[in-house]
Write a structure and sequence with these properties.
alpha+beta, single chain, 18% strand
């Protein structure tokens, strides 16, 4: 596995909403102002040829399950939103199976991440 190390679970990140490569997310301490907090990382179990739709659906399922465990509230009842990254086709061939899920507080008007400090873990927002 090449590439730079990604942010770890429990670290926070500033989102580049156009970023597709997980390695582009640089993690830092959540006490610093940030866009989002990484709460889950895991591998998809989809195998065989690259199937973007199936892989993205599995990524969403992983993130929604992990969301409730982390925040303490079901995703659909929460004001928080999820940003996720999943394997892209160019990485699939080299064995990339990693899904990264981050939680953020969306701005009520724009839906973009509101900068915040501290952790959302157990916040039940």
């Amino acid at each position: 596995m090449g590439g730079s190390p990604t942010a770890a679970v429990g670290e926070c990140v500033d989102l580049q909403l156009d970023a597709t490569a997980v390695s582009e997310l640089k993690g830092f301490d959540c006490s610093k102002e940030h866009d989002a907090e990484i709460y889950f990382k895991g591998d998809v179990t989809t195998s065989g040829e690259y199937d973007a739709e199936a892989i993205e659906q599995e990524a969403i399922d992983l993130c929604l399950t992990g969301f409730e465990d982390f925040v303490g509230l079901e995703y659909f009842s929460s004001v928080l939103d999820v940003y996720y990254l999943f394997p892209q086709e160019d990485g699939w061939g080299t064995g990339d199976r990693l899904v990264v899920c981050a939680v953020y507080t969306p701005d009520a008007t724009t839906g973009e991440a509101t900068r915040t400090s501290g952790s959302l873990e157990g916040s039940a927002l």
